[in-house]
Amino acid sequence: MPEYVGAIDQGTTGTRFAVFNREGEMISSAYEEHTQIFPRPGWVEHNPVEIWQKTRKVMKDALEVRGIEPSQISSIGVTNQRETTVIWDKRTGRPIHNAIVWQCRRTAEMCESLKAAGLSELFSERTGLVIDPYFSGTKIRWILDRVPGALKRAREGELVFGNMDTWIIWNLTGEHVTDPTNASRTLLFDIGCCDWDDELMEIIGVPDAMLPELRASSDPGTYGNVREDRVEGFTMPICGDLGDQQAALFGQTCFRAGEAKNTYGTGSFMLENTGTERVVSKNGLLTTVAYKLGDDRARYALEGSIFITGAAVQWLRDGLRIIENAAETERMARCVQDSGGVYFVPAFVGLGAPYWDPYARGTIVGITRGTTREHIVRATLESMCFQTRDVAETMEEDSGLEVTSLRVDGGATKNNFLCQLQSDLMGVQVLRPTVQETTALGAAYAAGLASGFWNDLDELQENWIIDRTFESSMDHGLRESMYSGWKKAVERAENWASSGDR
User: Fold this and answer.
1) How far is 327 from 320, CA to CA, in rounded Å?
2) Which of 196, 247, 358, 489 allows an S-S link to 343, with CB 3.0 to 4.6 Å?
3) For the structural domain made of 4-252, what CATH number should be given?
């Protein structure tokens, strides 16, 4: 009898394969970073072939490091950086262009044209999204318009589209499929009926022949079996597929309406489960599909999408070179009493929720002769917490539910200083679980439920254990003063770039 469930977590900066036991403990994993490509300011690309090669490598490495046999894996779940867009030749499997990453702002003008045509309300009602370069639809159209002959080939069924989940599953199984959580991030999907929308496809100009088949996020019918010629020894079924933030919500076992989590990765994403009812935001949040289990009705979530958090720390390392690794930031931030009046708005690719400004740019304000690299590091960590508070306050206003505690996950939550700072700047409890790779865990849960490895959601909830609770200890007046300074800094960053100088 298989002892484990596997999960492919294909993220913005790298790919992990993780192996979980029945208690939801990660017993082995392997991780590989991939290249970040920046053709122009505000543009971000990945090489999808490189990502596929790294995926194969981590699948084998994670088993070899612990002596696990493929036959011990019951099934595999996939989770992925959402919105990142790949188009490839259906016959050869070769991409016709680099993947355009979710952070990329190259379609800002196309989005402005759609809004100017009065289509914002239509897209919001159908998709739960705002018209923004963040989402896949305009990225698809951009590639079709720029690669010679691509639009004609797409209409004739020669080219197919997928977010990274679809690309990975295609390469593993030969199946062209996705789930509602990923489909709901394309601007082409009606989240009410959970199906592709012909009218929206026509407006953006995406041929329906390109789109993947829809299956439940946790699907007993499977997404297909891994082909042994793709990854040696692997023949198990893929039974789960969730966009990364929905996977983290699922991995945090936020199964009841009103339960929320925040994931700190390249960006940060706060999601609140709203049950089977769609809650429409009036303040810049998104309504998205949270998950769909088998034939059950889809569950929905409110989402606040923050584009740059962990990526700002990566920039400190690779761009400014003032740190050697992310772990240093905790020690450095503790070296100073505060940020010395420095505020860092990391709007490298614009601002997401609740501002939705594609023309905002990264801004550091408040620098004096006394500013040190420690102040900038601390201001970077503060920016992650301030952006989360922006979203939490908006979420409270939209849902009518007070955020009294926050479940957190992602690599940055290893930083105790950051978690305490988040509690202080929001004035709420921050709860960190023992398993912090909840994105991969959520994908494993989806697959394990479908394959019968786990029986039901109650069994999964028993696995959720708190590692540490952080209690707010900051004076209310100081908290509000710091947040007021943050809002002033955001005003300086907004609308910095115009369409002509991006």
Assistant:
1) 16
2) 489
3) 3.30.420.40
